[in-house]
Write a structure and sequence with these properties.
The complex is a heterodimer of chains A (398) and B (94).
Chain A (H helix, E strand, L loop, with lengths): L10 E7 L3 H12 L6 E4 L15 E2 L6 H21 L10 E5 L2 H16 L5 E4 H7 L15 E5 L3 E2 L2 H14 L3 E3 L4 E7 L2 E7 L2 E10 L5 H6 L8 E13 L7 E4 L4 E5 L4 E12 L7 H14 L8 E12 L5 E4 L5 E5 L9 H14 L13 H4 L16
Parallel strand pairs in A: 1-2, 1-11, 2-8, 4-13, 11-18
Antiparallel strand pairs in A: 3-7, 4-6, 5-6, 9-10, 10-11, 12-15, 12-16, 13-14, 14-15, 17-18
Helix pairs in contact in A: 1-5, 1-8, 2-8
Chain B lengths: L1 E4 L3 E4 L4 E5 L12 H9 L7 E7 L7 E7 L5 E6 L13
Antiparallel strand pairs in B: 1-2, 3-4, 4-5, 5-6
Classes of the chains: A alpha/beta (398), B mainly beta (94).
The structure holds flavin-adenine dinucleotide and zinc ion.
Amino acid sequence: MQWRKPEPKKSYDVIIVGGGGHGLATAWYLASVHGLTNIAVVEKGWLGGGNVGRNTTIVRSNYLLPQNIRFYEKSMQLWRTLSHDLNYNIMFSPRGVLNLAHTPGQMDLYAERGNAMRLLGGDAELLDRDQVARLNPGLDVSGNARFPVVGGLLQPSAGSARHDAVAWGFARAADQLGVDLLENCEVTGFLRESDKVVGVETTRGEIRTEKTAVAVAGSTSRVMRLAGIERLPIESHVLQAFVSEALKPVIANVVTFGGGHLYASQSDKGGLVFGGALDGYNSYAQRGNLPVVEEVMSEFLAMYPKFARLRMLRSWGGVTDMSMDGSPIITTGPLPGMYLNAGWCYGGFKATPASGWCFAHTIANDKPHDINAPFTLDRFKQGRQIDEKGVGPTPGYH
Amino acid sequence: MIIDCPWCGKRDVREFTYQGDGNIKRPAISDVNVDEFNAYVYDRENPAGDHLELWQHSGGCRSHLLVSRNTLTHQIASCETVGPWADKSGRAGK
Ligand SMILES: Cc1cc2nc3c(=O)[nH]c(=O)nc-3n(C[C@H](O)[C@H](O)[C@H](O)COP(=O)(O)OP(=O)(O)OC[C@H]3O[C@@H](n4cnc5c(N)ncnc54)[C@H](O)[C@@H]3O)c2cc1C
Ligand SMILES: [Zn+2]
């Protein structure tokens, strides 16, 4: 057995709600960095049964805005040594993430983004069409392509990791430091002393604590409503993903289409793993609709016409916590005794180590680290949105 | 997902554009309460269950529609025209 199955204690120093990647990482950093080991992770199902096991596993930090670059670069740093730090092979694979450009204007934008990344210590290389072709032999870079490729932006140190192993690795390492991982334990309410949150009501009884930290991703609005928070700058949307039958090695890196929204890579088992945009409407259904399937497939074929007869094995949908500016929230509050980690949209897997690291710091010190200080809940009211895409308060478009 | 437009009848979701939460009301422009404007622009109930929301039949009659849809099942309970045509009766007899 990789971790104990303890009975809940009456109280802990910290309770983390949500046993996904972020909750488990938070527990491990609280224990290993801040020496807080009398803590529990409370999970309604089984560990890693949420979006941490449902994503397309892309890990990258190719952002433009300095707040995002700093945060995701911290994550890249942690990813590099994570297998060693956890003593668990999370199969981090820095195979490079390549964003294709199809117009000269897009190349200019990539140059700007690459420069921003390099100025803050990241790695980025602007490639011309021939360099793209050499790196991705199967890609249609001819002038006949529906959207001819003119070049791309490569982040060589980016790539992917085994999603389940990330959850299991954080869980096992946290358990070994004494963290109680409480599965099949759904939070059904919050214990209150006037305004202050002093613990949780769960399907396995009441558990008290001075510090209640919520990290439930797509369920954020539902769980926070239990604490009387009726409205948040978040909408839940469904994102689909697809896996094909297995092929011999054919896609060397993670490649994204610049003429639409599509990202693809190849798993170690040989399946092509890819996805595109959100379905675009509020949903908790964990399944999407066919128009997005068709759109994703046609974008994939615009890049790789030779995959036209490839058979699909599986597809699924996950509920993502889309924030109003497309950026996360890692903060103290919004109630006394409470801490909130949310708004991961559909890019929160790559954030897992830095999110846990920053959230642990925020919980232990009752104030954020410089790296997550911009990611507050009240930034919207203050006009400090971190809107990477510049599409405004329309969660479905981020 | 099929939306039953009061003017055009049952059409595939791809003909429609989602416009978000249909409960929120824009405060009067003379209202200078920052909290209310902030809530209007950013804060959402985001329920798991019945949700009142706005869609536009952008690939059809272009009407703006108020739709009651369950976010857990995608089942649609009602769909009505909003705006200047709200009280006209649609061709589909609604
Ligand atoms: C299809 C898809 C593809 C994606 N692809 C990528 C990608 O390529 N790269 C990337 O960086 N990100 C990606 N993401 C996003 C990423 O998966 C999420 O942002 C991230 O996993 C969210 O954090 P988490 O792991 O903590 O969430 P989860 O694993 O969902 O954890 C939340 C946990 O909270 C639990 N919970 C909920 N309510 C309660 C309650 N009342 N009591 C107790 N526990 C509760 C849930 O059971 C769940 O286990 C993708 C997401 C999807 C859906
Ligand atoms: Zn119509």
